[in-house]
Design goal:
This protein is of the alpha+beta class. Helix content is 23%, strand content 28%. It has a five-stranded antiparallel β-sheet. The radius of gyration is 18 Å and the shape is globular.
Length: 103
């Protein structure tokens, strides 16, 4: 879930204080900034929630994360989403394809 960047790029991770999602990421590659949010829907999408400067990030109620903390929060989101997809007694919540029969 974390992307490696070459020597010309860097990534910074942030979270909203007191919240588990979204995990925000700022990637700077060859001088271009890309701000993204990884939310509970398990997708990365462009976001404008990150302020322009690193100093303003703290004033916006965000906390910087290292790669390990970001990976743990993303892993937690994936785990929570997989539990929501499982119905009663551990059976998948979605209906079976029409060609499947239960034994």
């Amino acid at each position: 879930m974390l992307d490696a960047l070459d020597a010309r790029g860097r990534a910074s991770y942030y979270a909203v204080v007191g919240s588990r999602t979204p995990v925000l990421r700022r990637r700077v590659v060859r001088g271009e900034r890309h701000d993204e949010a990884f939310g509970s829907d398990l997708r990365r999408e462009p976001t404008d929630r990150l302020p322009e400067t690193e100093e303003a990030v703290e004033g916006a109620g965000l906390v910087a994360l290292d790669e390990i903390a970001a990976a743990e929060l993303i892993g937690d989101a994936v785990c929570r989403a997989s539990h929501r997809a499982v119905g009663p007694r551990g059976r998948p919540g979605a209906p079976s394809p029409s060609g499947w029969r239960r034994r």
